[in-house]
Design a protein that fits this description.
GO molecular function, one term: zinc ion binding
Function: Stabilizes TBP binding to an archaeal box-A promoter. Also responsible for recruiting RNA polymerase II to the pre-initiation complex (DNA-TBP-TFIIB).
Shape: extended
Pfam family, one: Zn_Ribbon_TF
CATH topology of one domain: Cyclin A, domain 1
Family: Belongs to the TFIIB family.
Largest sheet: 3 strands, antiparallel
Strand content: under 5%
Mean pLDDT: 82
Low-confidence stretches: 1-8, 319-324
Protein name: Transcription initiation factor IIB
CATH class of one domain: Mainly Alpha
Length: 324
């Protein structure tokens, strides 16, 4: 046997012995049972005989205790997580607007003047070029509109990512910052199944409906976003809640929409109009009082649309019931 073969065999033997020692260290020395670590007491205990193999272990966690996620986040001393909703992802310093020191005492005139000057220079340093200034303004618009529409933070994050992609692909020349920001938020809301109508978007946006629709189609096409058509059922919970109607009305409205979908009545019609008409028809069937005017105000559509659609929904539901 050659010297190289002997050396290789010795190395393999050492590795095998190390693995054997490691496996034995994970077993109880008395009964060879499995060992578990009790982090609260800092002990390693055998699950079979209860022998304490190690004690007074070092706790590498925090010295405080927390009983839920909110309390854990509150006691944590690390910084805020990065977010796409800020142009610098939240990594820069932010000077608060309160003119108070660390003890809550108000600053005097000279100190307030100094802090205002520091805030001004801090804002200048946070945006290094025109693209960052563009992004900062757009993300502020997205946050403002999402707050006015009651959209969750997940939708705002998605809209921020869509706008960043549009900015990176150089899709903004010839289009306003507000228009692209509104289109990104509209697409994000539909992707996350929190749809808002174009009328609602126009009400909180700084651009008109024509520019919004044109920019939205352009962004969807150029970025290749997959956005499914809006489902009328996604508007039902919000409308019934705003009108103060019961769960029975909501269930009946969903049933009417399903019946209309089975008859092919949803094709080519506004999902907002279908949802509003279904809620009005469901309220009539459930003997709950609501007027067409109240429904049209909540859904932001005309009463004529409700009158035309709710009759079609009732007929479709009647056909379904008779067939059953």
């Amino acid at each position: 046997m050659s010297e190289t073969t002997i050396r290789t065999t010795d190395a393999e033997t050492e590795r095998l012995n190390a693995r054997t020692d490691e496996a034995e260290s994970e077993r109880c020395p008395e009964c060879s049972g499995a060992l578990v670590t009790d982090s609260e007491r800092g002990e390693t205990v055998c699950t079979d005989c209860g022998l304490v193999v190690e004690e007074d272990e070092i706790d590498h966690g925090p010295e405080w205790r927390a009983f839920d996620a909110r309390e854990k986040d509150k006691k944590s001393r690390v910084g805020a997580p990065t977010t796409t909703m800020m142009h610098d992802k939240g990594l820069s310093t932010n000077i608060g607007w309160q003119n108070k020191d660390a003890y809550g005492r108000s600053l005097n005139a000279s100190q307030r003047k100094k802090m205002q000057r520091l805030r001004t220079w801090n804002e200048r340093f946070r945006t290094q070029n025109s693209k960052e200034r563009n992004l900062k303004q757009a993300l502020g618009e997205i946050d403002r509109m999402a707050s006015a529409l009651g959209l969750p933070e997940s939708v705002r994050e998605t809209a921020s990512v869509i706008y960043r992609r549009a900015l990176k692909d150089d899709l903004l020349p010839g289009r306003s910052i507000e228009g692209v920001a509104t289109a990104a938020l509209y697409a994000a809301a539909r992707q996350a199944n929190y749809p808002r109508s174009l009328d609602e978007m126009e009400r909180v946006s700084r651009v008109d409906r024509m520019e919004l629709t044109r920019t939205y189609r352009y962004i969807i096409r150029e970025l290749g976003l997959e956005v499914a058509p809006a489902d009328p059922e996604s508007f039902v919970p919000r409308f019934t809640s705003d009108l103060g109607l019961s769960d029975e009305v909501e269930r009946t409205a969903r049933r009417l929409i399903d019946a209309a979908r089975a008859d092919g009545l949803l094709s080519g019609k506004s999902p907002v109009g279908i949802a509003a008409a279904a809620i009005y028809a469901a309220a009539l069937l459930s003997n709950e009082r609501v007027t067409q005017s109240e429904v049209s105000e909540v859904a932001d559509i005309s009463e004529v649309t409700i009158r035309n659609r709710y009759k079609e929904l009732l007929e479709a539901d009647g056909v379904q019931n008779m067939s059953a």
